[in-house]
Structure formats: C-alpha cells, structure tokens
Write the structure tokens for this entry.
Amino acid sequence: MKRLNQFIILITFVVTTVFVSCKKFDIVRIMDTKTDNIEINSSEVVASGTILDIGESQIIQHGHCWSITENPTVDNHKSELGAINERNSFTSQLTEIVPGVEHYVRSYVYDGNDYAYGNPLTFTLSADDIDFVTEPAERIDESTVLINSDVGNIGSITFDNHGHCWSLTDPPVIDDSRSSYGLIDGNHEFSSNINNLNLGRYYIRAYMDSEGGVVYSNTVVFESIISVYTGQIVQSDETIIMSGNIRSLGVKPILNHGHCWSAITSSPSANNNHNSLGTLNKLGSFSSEIEGLLPDVTYYIRSYATDSVNVYYGEIKSFKPTK
C-alpha cells in the first residue's frame, strides 16, 4: 500500500512538471539605454550613449540630458536626436556648460509614453582653454576710450554676463565700474565706449561671469591726458590778447602753458614764438598779451601745454593785426 501511494505521488509530480514546462510565457521587451562616456576636448564636451533595447514600440526621441544637479532629466538641458528603431550608439555635443562646476549627464530614450534613463556620469569643464583677448585702448578724446575684446574657442561653455571693468587700481574686478552685455555662449567680439574718465591711469580688462566664477582677459592701460583749447583773439590798440583753456589734466603735471604763434608756418609750435605762463595744476582759462606783431600780416596762433614728455596743442586760429 505504501509503495502504491509513492507511485501515485511520483506520477502526479511528473505530469505537473510536464504541463508547466509546456506552458507558453509572454516575454516583454523593455527599452533601455546606457551612458557610455564623456569626452572633453579643450572647451568642448561630447557625451556618448548606446541604445540597449528599443522595447515593444518605436523610440520617438533619444539623446542626453545634463544639469548641475544629480539625476538630470529632460526638464533640464537636453539634446534631441530624433527617432530610432534599432540598437545603436549615439553622441551629443553639450552646451550651456558652467565652467568650474560639476555637471551630471545621462542618456535617455522616449517612446511617446515613458522615459528611460541611462546611468549618470559626471564631469567638470575648465575655462582655461578659452581665447580671451582685450586689444590696446583706442583714445576717442581726452576722457573717452574705446575698448575691443574678442572671445574664441568658447566651445560648450556659457557665461551669464560679460563686458569690461575698469579701475584706478590694478587689477580691475567686476565690483569696480563696468559695462554689462548679458549672456554669452559662442565666439564673440564686443566693445565698450568708456567715457567721463577723470585724471588718472586706468586699468581696463574684459570679463565673463558665471556661477562657477569670473574669467578675465589681459589688462590694458589708459592714461588721461592734458587737453587745451584756443579761445578768442582780440586786439586792443597795439596789444594782442589771446585766451585759452585747460579742459582736462593728465596723469603727468603741466610744467608750462601759454600761446605760440608764427607768420611763417600755419602750424605753430612751442619751437616758434611763444610765451610761457608756467606750471598749472587746475582746470580753467588763461590769457596772453603780445605786442610787436606786424600789421596786415597773417599770424597763426594756438594754445599749448606741456608735461614732462609731450606738448599738447589747441586748435589753430589765424589773426591779422590792423596796426
């Protein structure tokens, strides 16, 4: 009897096993992707990925997403490489990267209903390879200067703001006086017209600012210079009265000033006839009285001021004494 029961149990087990093993199973394919690598070439970043499986329906969008926060999604920065219907590898050039800040990137696929994400990778991009140059200052007048700068090889990097900063101390920083032109995300030339520069030696450089810090160009120097104006010329009997005006002072002090004149050349200089009114350390007008000019002879006259290096002149005026 005992052997009979064992036999029945054995037969039941064999039949059950055969029935289960012959039952059909449904295998569901799930779309899947992998983030392979991040390649940094100078200031450019390229991410690569692989489609591991396309799932049951077609993938209508794929690419990479990235952010400065962990586990980025398509709500952050992303590339869109379109539909794909087979397993394959792909790459994305990343943009709007903040230099000096760690970023997270991962691949993604989308079938119209759901997103699948690959494993996250991290990278930090330096701004050291950006070409950032400020050209020598171009003087517009005694208190105005034009500054030109050029940005090259910016690659994947974006800065929130850019412009020029200047100061009487070296080096200038963005907490000093500055121009501001907003976001910059590509190779670019830009300029600033800086005016109302008072007496002094100014240090000027370009900047680009982001969450990761400030990048500066080389520094250029602008020195305020003496500006002199030739005023009216009037005759009182045999005396000629000439006026002038110091409109701006330079970094170097005025050692001499006055008027110069000539009947021979139309561009008189301090090497021709001139008077000397001495040193001056303030803005304002001055005048000269000259006697002995020949009547009915045309004279060319202008104001001048000198420092230790240069002579600065006002505009040339002509005058013909009457007696």
The chain has a mean pLDDT of 90. Residues 65 and 75 are 8 Å apart (CA to CA).
